[in-house]
Amino acid sequence: MRRIVATASLALVAAGCARAPDGAPFAQVSEVTPPFLARAVAADPSLAVEASGRVALTWVTRGAEGADAWVSISSDSGGHWSEPVRLNPAAGRVSSYSESRPVTAWGRDGLLVAAWAARRQGGGDDLAVRASPDGGRTWGVMSLVNDDRTDPTSGYHGFAALDVLPDGRPMVAWIDGRTSAGLADEPALAEIYGSSSADGGVTWSADTWIADDVCACCRIALASSRAANGAIDVAVAYRGAASDLRDPRVVVSHDGGARFVLDTLISVDRWKLPGCPSIGPALTLESGGGHYMWYTGESAPERSGALPRPARPAPGVYLVPWRVDVGPAGPKRHLTDSLADISHPMLARMGRATLVGAVGVSPGVLGRSVLAVRRLEPDGSLTRWVYLGSGVKSGAIAAQVERGAWTAWAEQSEGGTRVRVARLATR
């Protein structure tokens, strides 16, 4: 096991295992990259952590036939990893990049579900899912869940978000371009659809419409929890795109994903961009509320003679508490401290705290692109950032209740992009 020595705001690769000094948000930061990834060219990592501690790591490799999605499981805090399993049955048939990568989610009794964009033979993508009933040891058949999969003109499906609902049903949501089928390779305005399974991922429901006027290439986020009245809330965070305004939104179902009836604007940023920023939002949800995190960019100046409008927020990443019944439920915070060019927000519930992540440039003359993580404490205070990696292109975070956190990132190195993994232990 290699270590990542964590100071109050910095993490550098070294050998062995190290404890952080007083004031650091994590007691120990250890590199647990699987040996088979140490020298492999790989990208687009993602993580899912079971409450008992098992972690699923997914990544993508690329070769002459195309891209493949892989998964490996660790049951001992990264000490050992299972033999990688290719998720796509046919070699080279995965469409992936950092915003639209394969994802996994854990359910009850060892259920593990994976979702990704599956490349069609004749062009375009479908939304694929596959489930393991035994913690990744064996996998069922792949299912394509988008109902328009037989339409050769409708091939825009991806940016999968996945969760297992409190009643045990896995649910997947994705960005979908069927309303613009045949008009363009990438729609100017997309929709979000979803599907769920009542039998552990063996069969999947007909598609449920979730939202429209969606930014077509910004990832979405999906979270669920049991409400006080016993109902199941399901929330999907996304970036809007109507009139080229790229503001953050959330749409909520109060009946376990059957109908999505409450669509709320999280922040009136009025970020106007005639193109896709490829930076989606993140959210958490527990007992009717959670946190929402997003990036907003800089708009072009208002045209001459236009009526004056309220000032737009400064570019950067913002964080706000939210509730399923009202949307934003407190002041938004601009996360500007010590991290430059911050983007690609990430969130994960960590017991009563929240794990916060982003990609940005570390401070100092030799600033480098890093995966930065910190904790949002229950009292609203934020710990200092911990910086991981160098030349980071994308990242993923996950939490194991209060016991610790996991991070994975793709970084540019000699010979190509490498995937690295670290475990962060709490005090």
CATH topology: Neuraminidase
User: Largest sheet, order of strands side by side?
Assistant: 2-1-3-32-31-30
What CATH architecture would you give?
6 Propeller
How helical, in percent, are the residues?
Answer: under 10%
Total domains: 1
Beta content: over 45%
Number of helices: 0
> Which spans have pLDDT < 50 for at least 5 consecutive residues?
1-16
Shape: globular
Structural class: mainly beta
Instruction: Give the oligomeric state.
Output: single chain
CATH class: Mainly Beta
By DSSP, the count of extended strands is 32
CA-atom Rg in angstroms: 20 Å
Give the termini distance in whole angstroms. Answer: 20 Å
Mean pLDDT: 91
Largest sheet: 6 strands, antiparallel
Any overview of this molecule?
With 427 residues, the chain is an all-beta fold. The chain has a single domain (26-425), classed as Neuraminidase. 0% of the residues lie in helices and 47% in strands. The chain is built from no helices and 32 strands. The strands form 7 sheets. The chain has a 6-stranded antiparallel β-sheet with strand order 2-1-3-32-31-30, with no helix packed on it.
